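Work Package 3 (structural annotation) set out to generate three-dimensional models for the target panel prioritized at the project kickoff. During this period the team completed the workflow that converts sequence records into discrete structure tokens, so that structures can be stored uniformly alongside our sequence database. As a representative example, we reproduce one entry of 355 residues exactly as it appears in the project archive.
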Amino acid sequence: MSILPTIDEAKIEAFANQIVTDVGAALATALVAVGDRLGLYRAMADGQPVSAAELAGRTGTQERYIREWLNAQAAGGYVTYDPEQDAYTLPAEHAFVLADETSPVALAGMFQSAVAVIDSREKVAERFVDGGGVGWHQHSHQLFEGTARGFGAKYRASLVQEWLPALDGVVERLERGGRVADIGCGHGISSILIAQAFPDATVVGFDYHADSIAAAREEAEKAGVADRVRFEIAGADGYGGQRYDLIAFFDSLHDMGDPVAAARHARAALAEGGKVMLVEPYANDRIEDNLNPVGRVYYGFSTLVCTPGALSQGATALGTQAGEGALREVMLAGGFGSVRRAAETPFNLVLEARA
């Protein structure tokens, strides 16, 4: 005779409330992406109260839809609502996050990426069963654009100001005209930032995704650095042509199906005394230490994008929460003599590998 476990009604109620909160957050993700796409946050960025009709007029949208969207935003705490004026306000602090692309905490791109990967859930569910992968190129362009926007904010805030100076002797090399390889460069944000900061350096961005390389070339032209940064289609173990003073992996090593091969190739492509900079999502080495809001986001993206992407290329999938210990093992297995933590933020680990 089986004995049924005792049910704690308070725990049931608490978990049900959590489910309601999570469903609301999932819907909010889609609604923030809508507001971002239509310029609704930017139209409220002055911090002044606005009615639904006024916001609709500013953005060329329909008042009835805007009213419902604003009410959802107010219920979620994204905007405030004044019932006496029947008006809504986007606080300045929220505008800094959602309406200012130059902000170091610009996060609208994260919502764009999240919606894109949610749209890929059926493809990923099939891979749970057959063990295959879903390549980066199989996702929506919204993921590529959102990732560039989200990562761009982090890189603009930290790359030149903190991460590069934390590496031993790299800034001096770049100032003298060093050579940089950016592996898995995506839309080229990191490559362009380095080229802007170090006019005498030569930067080459590599990515297997042709559409991203095309976008990176356009961005370099817009930024006025196309004369000293170029972008080429190549995998992490297929680029060559010269030796590099700095080889960088910006949030890309964990997406590779054979990260040891990528590390080995980087080791062979380094100039004498050169360094590898490995930027990865922040993670602790133990699973239990990553069970927090940031870890939840990273594990979510890892399940829907990064792990399937790596498995589409090979047998190894580090995942976004690999941790410093696992990353160090990869680099050492690739032939590097030492790996150290050079810098960190709440969202990133920055490791330096040397021969």
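The radius of gyration is 22 Å.
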